[in-house]
Amino acid sequence: MPKLKPDTQRARRENILDAALTCFSRGGFHATTMQTICKEAGVSPGAVYVYFASKEDLIAGLCERDRAEFAERFSHVASAPDFLDALRQIGEHYFIDESPDRQRFVIEMGLESTRNPRISEIFMTVDRFCFDSFKTLFQRLKDEGRIAPRIDIETLAKVFNVIGDGMFWRRTIEPDINVRAILPVLVELVGSLLNPVEPVALPKTLVLASKKEAGL
Which of 24, 44, 136, 140 has minimal Cβ neighbours within 10 Å of its Cβ? Predict the structure, then answer.
């Protein structure tokens, strides 16, 4: 049998992960079998086991994919001219644009992590990554003088985790919730906690001098 090209292998792996996400979201961890996932993906058991030896491996693959996607989206927040707007855009993606299957999957895995040490290890690694990402961001914004938080950075990052968890849970049990009406309120709440610092306006004479020096 000819060896599959890397692009084909990646596509097959992604297809299997997409199928696993659908099955875990629909039936939960215990009701979902490897056979169920094979059927959903339209592949043989042998094809699945090439990439994933168990359901736990599938969970690890899904969580790592989500972590990498979050890292990519989050990497632009600190450098955004309006970091609150950048956070709002991330909220829109996860709480409005993304399929409810993702929210159900997160809730299912969170519950399973309380019973399964291996799932707990996988789940909490991603949870910790998200927490550390917010903590690092807020500390950087504070060090740069862009925010003057009303609470300590550690607590602030935990508050963000709680808000995210609550939104995932709410959208799971109420799929038709009008998140667009809620998100602006959350952004305002977040803004009050972060307490953005307005840029100090330079005197007009300094601005003109700077422009003259730059040849403008």
Answer: 44
Take residue 189 and report the two structure tokens written for it: 């709440």
Per-residue pLDDT of the chain (216 residues; tens, 9 = 90+): 456 677 888 999 999 999 999 999 999 999 999 999 999 999 999 999 999 999 999 999 999 999 999 999 999 998 999 999 999 999 999 999 998 888 899 999 999 999 999 999 999 999 999 999 999 999 999 999 999 999 999 999 999 999 999 999 999 999 889 999 999 999 999 999 999 997 644 444 544 544 554 455
Residue type present at position 123: F
Q: Which domain does 72 fall in, by range?
A: 67-194
| Interatomic CA distance for residues 184 and 177, integer angstroms | 14
Question: Which tokens is 35 given?
Answer: 């056979």
Task: Clarify whether residues 49 and 112 are in a common domain.
Answer: no
What sign has the CA pseudo-torsion 121, 190, 201, 142?
negative
Domains in the chain, number = 2
Question: Using alpha carbons only, what angle is made at residue 9 by residues 7 and 12, rounded to the nearest 5 degrees?
Answer: 110
Residues 11 and 42 in one domain: yes
Query: Are residues 48 and 97 both part of a single domain?
Result: no
